């Protein structure tokens, strides 16, 4: 794994820990591990639900954006907002995404995690996401990520690939 990815993972771990210990989350009286990792967060459905309801802060999204295989244009499309809105959110420190956008951000984080487990690097994952796939109706996986059913199809296909089950 490259030093850049490792550096982003370290920053993601710090950012997710700070977010999960913020007043937006701790008001829910759920005990959060003092040093939760980003990967640990993605494995905890209850923490994901709390994060969605609280709204993902732009600072966390910015790190996820650096970590994930999606371009700014992809993110705008996936979140169903304009790139101009993303720029405005970036300029406004302290912006929190609405729950509907927060859920999509976390879903794409899950796709990224599974994809990196399968392919081992972001470039191979990016190539796979943008290549039409016979098992996915000859669509590029990225085309299916706009809704949760499509995301589940993409993750299922990644898991099949990981287990050597090729259609």
From TrEMBL:
* Recorded superkingdom: Bacteria
- Where do the Antitoxin Xre/MbcA/ParS-like toxin-binding domain residues begin and end? 117-164
Name-wise, this protein is: Putative toxin-antitoxin system antitoxin component, TIGR02293 family
